[in-house]
Structure formats: C-alpha cells, structure tokens
C-alpha cells in the first residue's frame, strides 16, 4: 500500500498568533492519528521556527513552500535547503503553480531544486497542473508530461525520492474542484506516463490531488484508486476543516 499524505499549504497567510492557535488545535485534536496517513503543514518561512517548537515530538510534520536552487551564496531573499533542514523540515513544495505563474519558475529550475532537495535530505513535493485554457484545448496531458519530464530525467534514484501533487490551476482557490472522476483520470495518466520510464516506481509513487479540496469533497477524491491524499490550501487554515479532511483520508485508508 502506498503512503498517504494530507498536506496543508498555508501560502502567505497567518500571523504569530494565528499560527500558534492553529497548531495548538491541530496537535490537541481527538482525530485518531494513522501511521498510514502523514500530516504535514507548510507555513511561511518566518513561522518555521515557531512551528518546529510547537510540533516537535508530535505526529505532524512541517515543510517549506519553496527553496533556493543554489546551496548557498549571495542570493538575497532566498532560503537554502540546508537552512530548512536546520529548522526540522523534511519536505519541501516545489513548482507550485503560483511559483510558476508569478515568479517565472521553469521546469528546468524546478528540476534543479528537486535534485538539490534530495541531496539535502528533503523530500520534494513536485506540483504540476494545467490551466483552464490548456484543459479546454485538450493539452492537459502534454502539459503534465512536459512538467514531469525534467524531474524524471534526473533519473529513477532521484525521482523516486519525491512525491507528486496534481493541482489543476483552474481548481486552485476557485472553489471548483476537479471531480473525483476527472482527477482520477489524470492520476491514472500520470502513473501510465511514469511507467513508460520507471514501471515499479509508477505504482509506488504517492500522487496527491490539490485544488479546492474541502470537507465536502475530500472523501470522494480520496476514494479514487490513484489518489493518495491531498494538498490543501484554503481549508488547511481552518483547523476543523483540515482535521476533517485528514479524518476522511484515515477512514478510507484504515
Ligand atoms: P486551495 O485548496 O485553496 O484551492 O489551494 C490549493 C493549493 O494551491 C494547495 O497547494
């Protein structure tokens, strides 16, 4: 059985006070934890120290939303993989569509970060997804293939250290999730595409769905055979919603 993941991407939201309140509630929740479903939160960088203090020793892991493509140096405003490790991060999101769209991140740059993350002891969570225009012009598979191929070209031993997240851009923050069937169809395609290169890995790689996952649609999505959990934006800022989504994943998995 593949490991499942429920990951909260907080994006650029929160304050010292809200982070403390949210993490305290998540930690003290009565939702029974499952060894098969990993819970991870991705706060903004400046809250990582506080997150580490609050979550150390708990069942919840923490991760960064991005990292630099270089190990260290004169890169004003950047945060290195080694710094993230020092603050207890074990995972890092890479290639989120907001990074691609607003900060011009390319597949080459993201692949460079992917490699550096694995070399630094971080598990990269590679985000890929098509825009509405690309979907409407039937380019979804070609776009996803292109976004995947640079990371896959790093070789099986590198690529297998990651996690994949399919996040259709049209579903992010819009309240319009892909239907469970739409998402499953894409996840199945992704496994088939990966299998062309790495057949064992295609079955083992966790592939998460992201884009308007909420308590009312999570269960249907997670019931799909190729969906291994979710990358949650807006709903992860509300402890009750995040816990319910986690509980739904646990109930299907156990
Ligand atoms: P929403 O859940 O707010 O649509 O965001 C999804 C996302 O971008 C997670 O990385």
Automatic annotation (TrEMBL):
Which EC numbers does the record give? 5.3.1.1
Database matches in InterPro entries? Aldolase_TIM, TIM_sf, TrioseP_Isoase_bac/euk, Triosephosphate_isomerase, Triosephosphate_isomerase_AS
Q: How does it assemble?
A: Homodimer.
* PROSITE patterns referenced in this protein's UniProt entry, alphabetically: TIM_1, TIM_2
What is known about what this protein does?
Involved in the gluconeogenesis. Catalyzes stereospecifically the conversion of dihydroxyacetone phosphate (DHAP) to D-glyceraldehyde-3-phosphate (G3P).
Tell me where on the tree of life, at the top rank, the source sits: Bacteria
Q: Pfam families, from UniProt?
A: TIM
Q: What is this protein called?
A: Triosephosphate isomerase
- This protein's record includes keyword Isomerase: yes
Catalytic activity as recorded in UniProt:
D-glyceraldehyde 3-phosphate = dihydroxyacetone phosphate
Q: Which key words tag this protein in UniProt?
A: Cytoplasm, Gluconeogenesis, Glycolysis, Isomerase
Q: What does the sequence similarity comment in the record state about its family? A: Belongs to the triosephosphate isomerase family.
Identify the species of origin. Candidatus Rickettsiella viridis
């Amino acid at each position: 059985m593949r490991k499942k993941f429920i990951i909260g991407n907080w994006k650029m939201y929160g304050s010292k006070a809200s982070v403390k309140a949210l993490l305290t509630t998540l930690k003290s929740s009565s939702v029974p934890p499952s060894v098969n479903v990993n819970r991870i939160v991705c706060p903004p960088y400046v809250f990582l120290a506080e997150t580490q203090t609050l979550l150390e020793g708990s069942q919840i892991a923490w991760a960064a939303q991005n990292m630099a493509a270089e190990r260290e140096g004169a890169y004003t405003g950047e945060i290195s993989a080694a710094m993230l490790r020092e603050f207890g991060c074990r995972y890092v999101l890479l290639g989120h569509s907001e990074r691609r769209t607003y900060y011009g991140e390319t597949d080459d740059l993201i692949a460079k970060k992917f490699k550096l993350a694995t070399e630094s002891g971080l598990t990269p969570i590679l985000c890929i997804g098509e825009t509405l225009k690309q979907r409407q012009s039937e380019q979804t598979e070609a776009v996803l293939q292109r976004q995947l191929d640079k990371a896959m070209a790093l070789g099986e031993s590198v690529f297998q250290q990651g996690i994949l997240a399919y996040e259709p851009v049209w579903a992010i923050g819009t309240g319009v999730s892909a239907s469970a069937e739409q998402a499953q169809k894409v996840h199945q395609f992704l496994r088939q595409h990966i299998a062309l290169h790495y057949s064992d890995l295609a079955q083992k790689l966790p592939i998460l769905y992201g884009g308007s996952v909420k308590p009312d649609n999570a269960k249907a999505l997670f019931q799909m055979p190729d969906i291994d959990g979710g990358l949650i934006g807006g709903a992860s800022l509300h402890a009750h919603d995040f816990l319910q989504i986690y509980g739904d994943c646990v109930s299907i998995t156990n």
